[in-house]
Amino acid sequence: MKKNLEIIGFENKATKSEPPKVYTRFKTSEGWMSCFDETVAKQVKAYQGGVCCVEMTEKDGTNFKGEPMVYKNIIKCYGKEIELVEEAENFTKALDKFEDEKPEVVKIGRDMGKDYEIPKPKNGTATMYTSYAKDIFCEVTKQMAARDMNTEEEDAGRIMSTAIELVKQAREAFE
Questions:
Q1: Non-local CB neighbours of 121 within 8 Å, separated by 6+ positions
Q2: Could you give the angle at which helices 87-97 and 126-146 cross, rounded to 10 degrees?
Q3: Same domain, yes or no: 92 and 19
Q4: Which residues have a Cβ under 8 Å from the Cβ of 38 and sit 6 or more positions away?
Q5: Count of structural domains, the chain
Q6: 58 and 17 within one domain
Q7: On the chain, which terminus has fewer CB atoms closer than 10 Å, C or N?
């Protein structure tokens, strides 16, 4: 999971196994965390006394006394503190703001022998196309993160615009 952490301090350590494995323990705003990747540890050390964004994992285990505990490991450094967004949930909420159009409720019945006409919904496929564009956006940003490509706020808008254009092209191709 991606988190912004204050890096309070660190210490270089080695495992007790043979041969010993060198690692770094970081004292953070959320307690002690280990980092077994030398390159990542070096990047995080640069933020001592500040805040940086890291990818971390948590694993249940036991300590040397056999008591249960959670091991927290830093596996990636994204650099300076960033505003974190819960990918799907918050993005969907943001899209919902733009979908203010509510469908009209039409009761089907007879009035003096005449059938009511059921109007076609205005832009009834908008939700489906919005979902497609969101899926493309999420996958592109996930792939960029996997390649250590930082995305700025302007990039997110550009990526979303491109995703919308791709959906429009696909829709036109099949009409």
A1: 103, 104
A2: 140
A3: no
A4: 22
A5: 2
A6: yes
A7: C
* Residue 57 domain boundaries: 2-80
Taking the whole predicted model, whether its pTM rises above 0.70 is answered as: no
For 94-156, give the DSSP string.
HHHHT--PPPPP----EETTEEPP-PPPTTTTHHHHHHHHHHHHHHHHHHHHHTT----HHHH
Q: What is the pLDDT of residues 23-70, one digit of tens each?
A: 999 999 999 999 999 999 999 999 999 999 899 899 988 887 888 888
**Helices and strands counted in the chain (H then E):** 4, 7
Q: What is the pLDDT of residues 109-168, one digit of tens each?
A: 555 455 555 555 566 677 777 888 888 888 888 877 777 776 666 677 788 888 888 888
